[in-house]
What does this fold into?
Amino acid sequence: AKATGRDRVAVFEESMYADAVAEAETRAELERAVENDEFVVNYQPIVDLPSGRLIGVEALVRWQHPTRGLLGPNEFIAHTERTGLIVPIGARVLRVACSQVAAWHREIPAADRIRVSINLSARQFQEPGLLDTVREVLHDTGIAPERVVLEITESLLMHDVDATVVTLNELRAMGVRIAIDDFGTGYSSLSYLRRFPIDILKIDKAFIDGITANAEDATLAEAVVGLGRALRLQTVAEGIEHADQKSILSDLGCTYGQGYLFARPGTADEITVMVREAYE
Ligand code: C2E
Ligand code: CA
Ligand code: CA
Ligand code: CA
It folds into this structure.
């Protein structure tokens, strides 16, 4: 029995060693990917409710891996957050997405009000260079700042409230807008929410999923939309897959929607077709 215990320890150590090796390999691969610029940006339409008209897009990063194919963020973002590689990758996503949307504004004049939402992870938000990065990208791409939405999560807000308020105010002073992503899954209290200079609440898909079947989810979604209205914020419902979800949300007065019902994330070329259809 003692031997078994020792073996277990050995196996445990071996697997920790294997984890450390895998982690180091992934890190090296991701560093190479940053150098080779292997990240691509997809775009998912955000639409007006109930009309369904495209009013903006969310930029979603993918990794065009040389052998494993196109990888979604769930396969690498957590790792880049741990290592800090999210900072250069995120800056690249911001630049690519803003250039793309500026190109739509130039090429399709009626689409010059389309917005672009970009996800910021906590690590990027805490980086002192964030403000300069945003300022440079706005300058270089010529995009109107009010067309840019930065999405941050609730847990990031609660991390260091005073410092967060300062950074958000500086971003807002540049003219960009702030959305709270995955709203409802964190733990922000109503009183805190008032302290943050924000523009948009994105209601997490978890509540939208149950909205037609589950009275509690429907009540929560209704409460978030009401909260948004009371605080004069716009609301975006995420992960709308069914027409009945859309009609409930639009009856509740939710401003915007996003989800497979309207469109899946697509390449810049695929979304360009949709922008032309909506605005030409
Ligand atoms: P998120 O910000 O909540 O983005 C929405 C996710 O939901 C996207 O997954 C999108 O493809 C998916 N989605 C949208 N509509 C539907 C729907 O109707 N049904 C279902 N089942 N899914 C839907 P994706 O692209 O895999 O991104 C996952 C997460 O990775 C994002 O969640 C975001 O937290 C993170 N992420 C993506 N791009 C970036 C980035 O450039 N920077 C950072 N820091 N994080 C990113
Ligand atoms: Ca998001
Ligand atoms: Ca989200
Ligand atoms: Ca999410």
Notes: The chain has a mean pLDDT of 92. Strands lie at 39-48, 54-65, 69-71, 115-119, 148-153, 177-183, 200-203, 234-237, 256-257. The first strand starts at residue 39 and ends at 48. The CA atoms of residues 185 and 204 lie 7 Å apart.
